[in-house]
Amino acid sequence: MNEIRIPSTKPGPVTWESLKQELMTLPKETLAEMVNLWLKTYWTLQNYWMVYTEKLFGFENAAKMDEMVWSKLAPIQAHRTLKLLNLGSDMQSLAALLKFTAPQWVSAGFEWEFTDVSDRRLVMVVHACPMGTYRKSQNLELLPCKNLSPPLYIGLAKTINEKVDVTCVHAHPDPPRENVMCMWEFVLGD
To answer: How far is CA 57 from CA 49, 73, 159, in A?
Structure first.
């Protein structure tokens, strides 16, 4: 990457408008890397929050709190992304939402793909996620994502279109599948 020149800071209030003006002077590649850095930081925070909450309050309580937070966060993040990207109510818009929101950020440690994309159906397979990878490396119990994650994906999907049904096809505590952490199906109803 080329050397980046940040404008000199002058005395005065720091506002979103002033920050935005500075950001607009940066190369697009740098802006994309800053988004990437923020999302990696977001997932680092999530991992540490879960581990320390679990240490203080136990696994069940930490998992329940995580579910509660994500069930509130998902629709907020979905609505903001929908508005920013001017997304519609179709399955391509849902696919875009899933790609551009924090829950699946690739460089944060997620490895995933869509195995089916049509006008009425999406199937998403997550091969690795940062929380699962970290928990496995520390010999910690995996989160029961089959029970905890539906509010997250339902919140995202229903923001795009209330008629989208979400099914967890596979996730822990289901028996392990090779190269599959979890699998989700999104179907647009009539």
So the answer is: 12, 22, 32
